[in-house]
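We examine the record.
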Amino acid sequence: MTYLPKRRPKIPPRLNPSWPRVGKVIMRSRVTIVGGGLAGASLACALEPLDLDITVLEATPPQHDDQPSFDERTIALTYSSRQVLEGIGLWPEIASDAGPIHRIHISNRGHSGFARLDRNLIGADALGYVIPTRALGRALTERLSNNPRVDYRCPAEVSSIDHDPLNSSIRVEVSGEKFSSSLVVLADGGRSSLGQSMGLKSKEKQYDKEALIGIVGVDRDQDATAYERFTRHGPLALLPLDARRYALAWTLPKAQASEMVTLREKVFLEVLQDAFGDRVGFFSRCDRLKAYSLRRVEVETPVGDRLIALGNAAHIVHPVAGQGFNLGLRDVAHLAEEIFHGLKNNKDIGDSEVLAQYANLRHRQTKRVLRFTEGLLQVFANDYPGLSSGRNFALNMLEILPPAKRMLLKRTAGLSEPLPRLTRGLPLGASL
C-alpha cells in the first residue's frame, strides 16, 4: 500500500493564511528548514517544544524514486542517535522496526586478526540499531504532516534565497511567494546547489568504489551480532534486522559492484558466501540489491549570514564507520540546543554569535569523524602489501584492551563529546 502523508486542512499546500503580507512579501516565520528528509524533519521535530514558527520545505514527494528518505537502504543508528529520537518523541513509533545490535564482530577475512565489542562495555541496552530508511522517513513525514506547530509543504521547491538586511532577516522564495525568517537551515542533501549559491564552499572527493546494498537471509537464527569483515575486495558489513535477515553493505570497486547487481541470485549468494565465510550459516536469499556511488563532501564553513547547512548538506562521509546519518543527528541535537539557549536568553536566533557557538563545536567534532573514517579506509580498505599483518595486529591488540574498546565505542556512538539534551534522550527545555 503506497503511503501518502496526510495534509492538515487548515494549511493549503502553498500558503499558510495566518501569515501577514506586505504586497507579495509574507512577513517572517522564525525558522525555515529547506529539506524535509531525515535530517531536516528531525530538526523540525526537535524544535516543536520551542516558541517558534517552523516551516519545512521539501521538493521531492514521498515515495518518489529521487527521495532518499524512502529508498531501500538501511541505517545503523548509534546509541546516541536512538537517544536523540527518544528526545524528539519519535522512538516509540519506530522501535518495532529497529533491530538491536548487542555486539560487533570485526575480522580480517582469511587471517587471524579479530575483535569483539559488546554493549556491556558502555552499559547500554544496545550498541546501536538497524532500521530501514523507509520506515524512519515515513514516521518523520507523518509526524510533520499532522503537527499543527509545523507548516510542512511537499512538494515545494525553493527558487532563491536572499538577505533582507533592513529587517534583519533572510528571505526564501517558493512558487513566486517570498517570506522572511530569522534563520534558514539547509538540510536538502548533498546534491543541492542552494548552499553553493549562498557562498558555502565545499571540498569533494570521489571514491573509485560503490556500496553494494541489499537484504540477505540466512538459514539459522542469529543473536543480534553485527559483522564487519575486511575482504580482499573491500569492507563487508552485515547488520542484523531480525533473527534471520541482515542488511548487507559491501564496498567494492565500481566495475565489480556493477557486475554483482546483474548476477543471478544463486550465483551472487555463492560469491558472498566465499567472501564472508560461514560464521552466520549459509546465505539463502537476497533482496533489493543496488549499488550506490561513494564520495566524501565537506562544506568548509557550513554557517553563513542567518544560514546553516547540516546533515548531508554539510558533510557526506564514507559508510565504513557507519557515521553518515548519525553525524547529521548530532548536528540536529547541537543546533536545537543553541536555538533553545538563544530563545531563553532573548537573542536573535539568526545572530552570528548564536551560530558561531554551533559552528565552532560542530567543526571540531565533524573533523574528528572525517579523520577517523579516512584512517579506517587507509588501514582496512586497502590491500597493499604488508597492510594485512598490520590489520591483524591492530585487531588483536583491540581485542585484549577493554579500555581501547570502550574509547572506540564511545567515539563512534557520539558519547565522547559534550552531550546536549537530545543526545541524553531529553526534550528541549528539560533539566540536565
Q: What stands out?
A: Residues 21-99+128-204+296-385+417-424 form a domain with the FAD/NAD(P)-binding domain fold (CATH 3.50.50.60). Confidence is low (pLDDT under 50) at residues 1-24.
